[in-house]
Amino acid sequence: MNGSMEFLLWTKGPMFDIALIVFALGLMARLAEIFLLGRAPNYAAPRGKEWHRGLRTLFTRNFPDPGTFQRAPFNVLVGWIWHLGFLVILLFFVPHVELAKGVLGIGWPTLPNPVIDLITGVTLVALIATLVHRLTHPVKRRISTSEDYLVWTLVFLVVLTGYLAYHRLVEPYPLVLGMHILSAELFLIALPFTKLTHIFTAFIARWYNGATFGRKGVQS
Amino acid sequence: MAAPTTLGENLRAQGVSRRGFLKLCAATASMLALPPSMVPRIAHALEATRRPSVIWLSFQECTGCTESLTRSQAPTLDELILDLISLDYHHTLQAAAGEAAELARHQAMEANPGQYLVIVDGSIPGPDANPGFSTIAGHSNYDILMETVANAAAVIAVGSCAAFGGLPAADPNPTGARSVMDLVADKPVVNISGCPPIPMVITGVLVHFLTFGRLPELDEYRRPMAFYGQSIHDRCYRRPFYDRGLFANTFEDEGARKGWCLFRLGCKGPTTYNACATAHWNAGTSWPIQSGHPCLGCSEPSFWDGGGFYEPLSVPTTATATTLLAAAAAGAVVGGATTARAKKQTRNLVAERQPVTVEELEKKL
What is the ipTM, given to two decimal places? Predict the structure, then answer.
């Protein structure tokens, strides 16, 4: 008997365990490696403070400098829109908060469903725009690798199946909900081994950048 | 035994008026989503047909399905089920006992070969399981089922145990319980799932079978589309609250008092297909969500193993924070070991490095 309900229960049961284990194990292995290898020792006398600069850069790098925006307004604007949309949907949709509460034991306030729905629509359009841009922009197309397209597909599938499930556009519903959960699981599995790791490493890199410059006493 | 009378005659003998009979036909047509023009056809078919012989087999069950059926408020459609059919064998309801009871079953099978209906409630220990888990008159449930369905016209699995294995088949399934459709391969099987199922649905399927001579359109789980075609969520009167994001967070809060959506309290309505939201229970009085309780999803396969009844639908069934922490700890160990190896390699390379002078290089060139 292999119906839609069995599929849903598989994605909510054994497959979720596998995805969670691969994600946590892979990510921690990579992070531990990054932190334990550390940086080469700097024997020069420090001219400024590391921590202060490092932490400040964590925040300031969220915003591009004016030159970057003038050179690539699309990347900055659309990138911002879909990253923010993705985060808001992930963190503030009621079922997602319930999931966190169920697994981690901590919950937080949520946003009303119609707001999440609107943000999902915007995020989907923005994601499609990034793909079109990647395929049409001559430089971007040259430098894009298969990994870039794989990661785009994973992100897009998670949001698309979520939208389809919320609006119940695929029957039977357990099938589409299972597809959404499975997409999220594939995303989690791929996270430590693709450029998706930047979700965590971007902040480490920012800190190192800021701290290095801070030690030298120059602006970062 | 089925008396050689037509169903119409039998209904009149039971005191059902013509008006009452036509009401049954109209209600059934509407339940099955048939056009009103079908009502005369249903009436004609039911009038003329002989009451079908029905053998009701109860296996690993709690009698809740029969209780639900027989305790429905009279006089309703539900009670008319017993007038529509000639119920020739039913443990709980029949007067006969022991050998006389088993004789009734065999007589019904011999008198109506290929024409009788078998209704099953309860799951069955499969052919590989110990047959001793459930026996009747010294015979295993599996043997009785196979013997009885061999010459049946169709099999109706009533209740989630017969349809999907239900509670007996829940993990770890100690009796090796199986559903009817798992075991009966060569006969049409209809599943009327639910714990218990809506009695009206049983009537609907029987009327459809008597009128058209075939079973109604079924979904992927062999459930009649007319009753299981839409989810509880889609027909729930609390759906507007879900759409607006208004939820009850506990059973005592303002949201619960105002009748808001029960998703956060574990409602399985979104994944559950049944007619509770429209048919209601207890002569149309109410239904679980109307009484303030989340839907358990009792008409779906594996509903006992599908996560806690009060866990929201989005919560994984087995994953815990411990899984996450253990995997993360293992990851840290792996990362540490990789780093240690890399550092050791570097140290070895440094130790074994053979310095080369410019003169030596020039000689080589």
Answer: 0.88
